[in-house]
Design brief:
This protein is mainly beta. It is globular. The structure holds zinc ion. The site of zinc ion (ZN) has 5 residues, from loops. The site of zinc ion has 5 residues, from loops.
């Protein structure tokens, strides 16, 4: 929990005569709450006390953890073990305290309540990961734990040609598991992100079959992404079903930065120039821990989402409210014009300057502002910190940002951050 959380602390004292009762400590949940967190601290005046913990929502008991935990949370799609994830109805809830053992002098408890409010913010995640449900080494719980270690908010579970992972997404993990499938053919791979059953049968013998399955996945709510389209390390991984395939997104950044990704980036830029608005996303494609450079959240895809909820994250991806960084630490890119941000199309009547802000650049980083028409603007950071630039007229069809850094390991410049474009409506000039 962080900035958008409301924290309240309630203190209570219970007497010996209340032992073995289950008491309620009521609190109010507003309609804009995304997650309820409770932390219980028990301080017996003297001797030993056991206070059990549970939660009631407006309808009834929402969960019970007895004496097993002091910290619990309930959200729409995830909750602590012992608690049920689901909608958070507004109204009077209560912390349930089971006064199992109370010493003669009584017991004092402190209940810290944290309510995370629904608020648009940048969430960090990974749209490409494997588990034991295909050829990965991690159980789903291990995969989500690894993602949590990297500080991620969500992880798409994209096993090859199967949905069994989607039927087993752990809902008691701190990281939101998003259903997925890597549609895997002998002539290329595409990710179906966000649908439990994107397709019924993955077998495809022709381009028509492949495109039909991609459309089916989209109709069933999945974001469709062309994976590592120019991958050269395996004979069947590059996308050979035609780049005009019906996709929402393209994985321009797969695993560590390398020439195959550079080709994908160049191809994507050409697609943007031709007027095709594909959203650039990233995916680690992590299967195991064999390669030290392939890790959950490397690269990390940042999504500007109204809440940490699968449906909101998918919508934000379709809108292109997305940038990618080499790892979950940044640098963070923001491209804004008035109330519009990367992925949006700025209407002609909005005449604000466009603000480009890159946080957490390192000395030596090169920030490149790349317009759809005209010269690339380059700026080399002399010191670490924040880079801010305003761009006014003339307006290009789009503007996007890259940040490059010298890698001593690979002895070359590598991409460390990539924004999606902010588009401009140009009218007659276009
Ligand atoms: Zn693949």
């Amino acid at each position: 929990m962080g900035e958008d959380a409301k924290r309240t602390v309630i203190a209570r004292h219970f007497a010996k005569r209340q032992e073995k009762r289950i008491v309620e400590v009521p609190f109010l949940v507003a309609s804009d709450v995304e997650e309820v967190g409770v932390e219980l601290r028990v301080s017996p005046t003297q001797g030993h006390a056991t206070v059990d913990l549970g939660l009631r929502d407006v309808h009834g008991v929402r969960g019970w953890s007895g004496g097993a935990r002091q910290v619990v949370w309930v959200g729409e799609e995830t909750a602590s073990p012992g608690y049920v994830a689901g909608p958070l109805p507004a109204g009077e809830w209560a912390v349930l305290l089971g006064l199992y053992e109370v010493p003669d002098a009584g017991v004092s408890v402190e209940i810290a309540m944290e309510m995370r409010l629904k608020a648009p913010r940048w969430l960090r995640g990974d749209f490409h990961a494997h588990s034991i449900h295909s050829d990965g080494a991690f159980s789903l719980t291990e995969a989500l734990d690894k993602a949590e270690e990297q500080g991620l908010d969500f992880l798409a579970l994209t096993d090859h040609n199967t949905v069994s992972q989607n039927l087993n997404v752990p809902r008691d993990a701190r990281v939101l598991g998003i259903p997925g499938m890597e549609f895997t053919t002998y002539d290329g791979h595409a990710n179906f992100i966000g649908a439990v059953y994107p397709i019924d049968d993955f077998r495809a013998a022709s381009r028509e079959d492949v495109y039909r399955l991609m459309r089916t996945a989209a109709e069933r709510g999945a974001v469709v992404s062309l994976n590592h389209p120019f991958e050269s390390s395996c004979p069947s991984c590059a996308w050979r079903w035609g780049m005009e395939a019906p996709a929402d997104a393209v994985e321009v950044w797969n695993g560590p930065w390398r020439p195959d990704n550079e080709r994908a980036l160049r191809w994507w830029h050409q697609a943007l120039l031709s007027g095709r608005r594909l959203v650039a996303i990233g995916g680690s494609d992590v299967h195991n821990l064999e390669n030290p450079y392939v890790r959950h959240g490397h690269p990390c895809t940042w999504v500007y989402s109204p809440a940490r909820r699968t449906a909101d994250i998918l919508t934000a991806v379709r809108q292109g409210h997305v940038f990618i960084t080499a790892d979950p630490d940044g640098p963070r890119i923001e491209v804004e014009c008035g109330s519009y941000r990367m992925g949006d199309r700025v209407p002609r009547h909005v005449t604000d300057a466009t603000t480009i802000r890159v946080r957490e650049v390192e000395a030596g980083d090169e920030v490149r502002i790349i317009p759809g028409v005209g010269d690339v603007l380059r700026w080399r950071a002399q010191s670490p910190g924040e880079y801010v630039c305003e761009v006014q007229e003339p307006r290009p069809p789009f503007l996007r940002v890259e940040v490059w850094r010298w890698s001593p390991t690979f002895q070359t410049e590598v991409l460390v951050a990539l924004s999606n474009p902010l588009y401009f409506e140009l009218g007659d000039l276009a």
